[in-house]
Amino acid sequence: MTMRSLLYVPGSSPRFLEKAHERGADAVIIDLEDAVAANEKDAARAALARSVPMVGRAGATVIVRINTHDEPTMLADASAACQAGAQALYIPKVSSPDILHRLDAHLRPLEDAGNRPPMRFAPLIEDTEGLLNATPIAAGPRVFAISVGGEDLATAMGAQPTPEVLRLPKLMVHYAAKAAGILSFGLLRSTADYADRQALAAAVAEAKDFGFDGATCIHPSVVPLLNGGFSPSPEELDRARRLIDAADQADQAGIGAFTFEGKFVDRPIVTRARALLARSPR
């Protein structure tokens, strides 16, 4: 699965929803939580029947970020997203796998009744309990990706949301994702200034080097940068193909480790090259 860019769109903003499919994001997150005022949440939820197919008409994966501050609202948001045809839920403030199991049980009869595929879950880790439970959360039901909500996590810790403060928590959640074999979203360094292309490009390049799969954004101008930054470059793809050809020839000759373009190559390097080709957009 390739999901390099995930664009947040307020669920209460028809103007942004109508344009979301034109932005080129791999996924669109219709936000019912932080981006929607309390007195507009019911209307935004009711509008999902129209907004979900609208934002997905160019082929993007449609995700709905639900509210989790109380059980009735959470289940109502999840039900509406399911019935509207969203593929996944972004679930904020996940402190343990319990919430995932409750949502799983709630959605099963709705999915059966609608004869639709199961929804997938992307938990957001936003407090210290969730941080320490990242491994079981990542292995929870329906989970395909996991991420850190940096502002909320810093607030929960009584800390400032600086890159230095959030680096270790983000890596802890990232390692939990990789151990579970799911996607990991985020940047180790983030910037509030989306016009600072150089800083954003550096942050994306660093995240890619660490093995992150993609990142969310709130401004459509960032989408092309994420798509490009989290994709293998033509040079990387070409080198991977040549390396695999050389590895195949070495296998046929009964050779294990070998030298490729002046560098020692063993099995992990070949495996990494094959993985790079497997996840490149076709």
UniProtKB/TrEMBL annotation:
UniProt key word Lyase: yes
Cofactor(s) of this protein: Mg(2+)
Keywords: Lyase, Magnesium, Metal-binding
Top-level lineage group: Bacteria
Molecular functions per Gene Ontology: lyase activity; magnesium ion binding
Domain HpcH/HpaI aldolase/citrate lyase: 4-220
InterPro entries: Aldolase/citrate-lyase_domain (IPR005000), Citrate_lyase_beta/mcl1/mcl2 (IPR011206), Pyrv/PenolPyrv_kinase-like_dom (IPR015813), Pyrv_kinase-like_dom_sf (IPR040442)
GO BP: oxaloacetate metabolic process
Residues binding Mg(2+), per UniProt: E126, D152
One Pfam family recorded for the sequence: HpcH_HpaI
Keyword Glycosyltransferase on entry: no
SUPFAM superfamilies: Phosphoenolpyruvate/pyruvate domain (SSF51621)
UniProt: substrate binding residues: R65, E126
Coiled coil: none
Family of this protein: Belongs to the HpcH/HpaI aldolase family.
Protein name: CoA ester lyase
Organism: Ensifer oleiphilus
